[in-house]
């Protein structure tokens, strides 16, 4: 198959920025450059982060457009070179790129977040197994000397062979922040996106034990950043457990319930 020709055919004509194509015995994705993102948002968020003295929350610029395409292609190729499971880049255009589907051709590859939600009906232990696989997948990235872009459970996908793959690399945190800060940021992103599922499955008490042990596997610098960040976010312990402040407030509260297992507390 001529992947360059395929990309040139669809990159500018497809109605959505990301689209899936089932071609013969393989499944492909074309991702087109999106709109540019205004810089003032990042400057404002950066000022707020400095005022709160929590560098791990520093915004990572995502300019959008062609620059975001170039960043994602570079990061996907870098992950592959490090032996990390990520979509294979098959062709590149200034306005987009073509990548191979991580899963079985013609079938969806669910995100770890969706798998955890679907596992709620199967009990605490099933949810915990999936959650621990996510932590192990993040550790694998850190041991390879790099970081994710946004380590939310939606950006971790479990391939048919059970290996966790990584997607969505439109920004590069390590280009703007020290690596230990980026790796602590990975940990917080994952907790924020999964703690509420753990809470629904009554898995938080058991998860705290695993979290405490996992924190010890971080590099000393990343662990220090994480512990300092958690200490400065102690205000989250005063948030209500219910949805009085909305779902986002509740998720932050559930995340802090897990984070308080950190050895510094």
What does this structure look like?
The strands form 2 sheets. Strands 1-2-4-3 form a 4-stranded antiparallel sheet, with helices on both faces. The chain starts with a helix and ends in a 6-residue tail after the last helix. It has helices at 3-10, 40-52, 65-81, 112-118, 124-143, 179-200, 204-215, 220-232, 246-259; strands at residues 18-23, 26-32, 89-93, 96-100, 156-158, 164-166. The chain is built from 9 helices and 6 strands; from the N terminus they run αββααββααββαααα. The chain has 265 residues and is of the alpha+beta class. Helix 6 packs across helix 8 and helix 6 (179-200) packs across helix 9. Mean pLDDT is 88; it is low at 44-48. The protein folds into 2 domains: 3-100, Phosphorylase Kinase, domain 1, CATH 3.30.200.20; 112-259.
Task: Produce the secondary structure layout.
Elements: H1 3-10, E1 18-23, E2 26-32, H2 40-52, H3 65-81, E3 89-93, E4 96-100, H4 112-118, H5 124-143, E5 156-158, E6 164-166, H6 179-200, H7 204-215, H8 220-232, H9 246-259
Antiparallel strand pairs: 1-2, 2-4, 3-4, 5-6
Helix pairs in contact: 4-5, 5-6, 6-8, 6-9
Number of strands: 6
| Overall pLDDT score | 88
Low-confidence stretches: 44-48
Structural class of the secondary elements? Answer: alpha+beta
Summarize the structure.
With 265 residues, this protein is of the alpha+beta class. The protein contains nine helices and six strands; from the N terminus they run αββααββααββαααα.
Key phrases:
single chain; 265 residues; alpha+beta; Phosphorylase Kinase, domain 1; 2 domains; four-stranded antiparallel β-sheet; two-stranded antiparallel ribbon; 9 helices
């Amino acid at each position: 198959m001529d992947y360059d020709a395929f990309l040139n055919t669809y990159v500018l004509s497809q109605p959505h920025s990301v689209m899936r194509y089932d071609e013969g015995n393989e499944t492909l994705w074309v991702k087109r450059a999106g709109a540019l993102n205004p810089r003032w948002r990042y400057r404002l968020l950066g000022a707020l982060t400095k005022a709160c003295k929590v560098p791990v929350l520093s915004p990572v610029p995502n300019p959008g457009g062609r620059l975001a395409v170039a960043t994602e292609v570079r990061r996907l190729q870098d992950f592959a070179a490090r032996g990390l499971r990520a979509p294979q880049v098959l062709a590149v255009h200034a306005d987009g790129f073509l990548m191979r589907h991580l899963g079985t051709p013609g079938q969806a590859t669910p995100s770890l977040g969706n798998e955890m939600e679907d596992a709620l009906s199967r009990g605490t232990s099933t949810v915990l197994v999936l959650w621990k696989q996510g932590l192990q997948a993040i550790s694998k990235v850190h041991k390879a000397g790099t970081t994710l872009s946004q380590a939310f459970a939606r950006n971790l996908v479990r391939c048919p062979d059970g290996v966790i793959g990584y997607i969505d690399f439109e920004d590069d945190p390590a280009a703007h922040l020290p690596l230990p800060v980026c790796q602590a940021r990975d940990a917080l992103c994952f907790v924020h996106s999964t703690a509420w599922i753990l809470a629904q499955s009554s898995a938080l008490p058991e998860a705290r034990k695993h979290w405490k042990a996992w924190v010890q596997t971080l590099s000393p610098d990343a662990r220090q950043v994480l512990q300092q960040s958690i200490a400065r976010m102690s205000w989250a312990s005063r948030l209500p457990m219910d949805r009085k402040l909305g779902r986002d407030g509740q998720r932050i509260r559930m995340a802090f319930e897990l984070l308080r297992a950190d050895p510094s507390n």
